Amino acid sequence: MRSKQPQELLHSVWGYKQFRDSQEEVIQTVLSGKDTLVLMPTGGGKSLCYQIPALIREGLGLVITPLVSLMMDQVTTLNKKGIKAIAIHSAQHHREIDYLLDECIYGGVKLLYCAPERLSTPLFIERLQRMTVTLLAVDEAHCISQWGHDFRPSYLTIHKIREYLPETPVMAMTATATPRVRQEIVTYLKMDDPTIIQQSLTRTNLSLSVRIVEHKEDKLLDILSRIAGSAIVYVRTRRKARELSHFLSDQNISCTFYHAGLSNEYREERQLAWKNDQYRVMVATNAFGMGIDKADVRIIIHYDPPMSLEAYYQEAGRAGRDGHLCFGVLIVNPGEERSMLKRWKQSHPSQEEIKHVYQCLANNYGLAIGSGYMTTHVFDLGRFSKRYRLKADHAHRCMKKLQENGLIQNNDIAYEPSRMKIAVDHKELYKFQVAHARLDHFIKSILRLYGGRLYSEVTVISESKIAGFANLNMSKVKELLSKLSDIGMIYYFPQTTDPTVTFTTERQDVNKLNIDVERMNFLKKTSRVRLDALLSYFSNTGKCRMSVILDYFGEKTDECGKCDVCLGKNKQISPQVVRGEILKLLERQPLTIKMLGQAIEFIPEDVVVDHCRALLDAGDLIMNEQSELIIND
Question: Which of 115, 262, 368, 442 is the most buried (most CB within 10 A)?
Fold first, then answer.
């Protein structure tokens, strides 16, 4: 049977008529069997570049990604399209991982998404050698570099599995990587003379600006009043997300908020409502944005700046994916630099502080020295901090350092709905029902709800639906499902929603804790380099902002002509554009010339003032007794 070609799959599975930018070039290079490094901006469609080759070739594609929430979103989307995809991560029970790995050998799985810390486990390595892996795709590949903005030590183990996949091509993908980071990706993944496909990071429809103001709330309202359309406002903390959302709502701006501490139900509900334009503004921490499929976001506002240009440009790049004009605005206080330097210092705790938090973690879960390897535990930062009299933000920073040293893995909230599969054939299940008459009605209820696919695939179920159909309460349904799972009649995997922490080594004696001080000092140095680059971007007043960012990533470009710096230089802005902006504001209310000059964000104030005077001279505008301009009808 003839295998489908990339263009056929693009149309039949994804419904697109043609590839974007360099997607087809990447796919053809991967299909040729070459190692490939892909540099593609946020929203560039990287996932299709490994999904389509995995569908075309025999066997499965193995995708490494650190983002559990993103991998689950991808798996759900692919399954809805009829493509068998699964994910393996630390929040899952050992029995489920065991079953899913078997499915990769015998069950026709086309895409296996895997968190990097799983790669070194004996169970994974043993099953990997029995799989037919035709592509190894490494997403967020910058995580492998100590010069990258999100270094993950677990990424340094990826090259080891290549020993078991000597003929399998590697595809590494990232949206933001400097030349040094790119070289480290190639080196650490042991890529063999890779083809490097680099799509320009420039966004020709994105207007960037920095606003240095005393009162951020006033400037935020000002920007939102003048730029219509969907918006994301990024803040640093969960508390700020909630408070700023309430402030905007009080100003009659349709708004909601999002952070990783919300329940999955609330996060999904708010994300969907914003995507469907029920809310205009989403105030969010950096937990929001990955995998967001909304093309018409008109403005990204950073109310609190991130700590690197990589993070800033990745988040700003979520605007204007429809190709229309969009804006990225960074609002800073005059004293922002001091507070960011303070945060940078606090983010590098001492070795003793890190050891203390490790001891508290081990005590929290009762782990003896030498135990706990690859065990995963539900983790509540607030409860943990209170129990051991720690400041929550300090505990979080120490845990990040423990992760950088490969001792633990902090897992983002890994929501998965409840799932089950019948573990026996029809005849054996029937015999069981006859022998256990009290469970017969319960089993029949499940089969009537979900049908025969329960015999062939892990199926998402709802305990509440089963409870209603079988006339039982929820707790009884869960009890019976667990009982059937324990005796081997079904696989039952209850819903998971909680953040977790995984011990990626055996619990160590805290006095002999394996902390790489040299690496810690190096990471501190590299983080300061990234912070300095961002602070330089703040203070820049003479160079095109897009050029500053692309220079940082090793790419040259002409001036964009749209950022605040370029507009400040270019006094020959179209009179029609300036006139249109002036009249649009005056249609709402009378304003003074000075107020107009300050209100039109992306046109220099002196240009606005000159055009106001010209319109007055021409009689198109008149001035009232309060020195306010009014349109002369």
Answer: 115
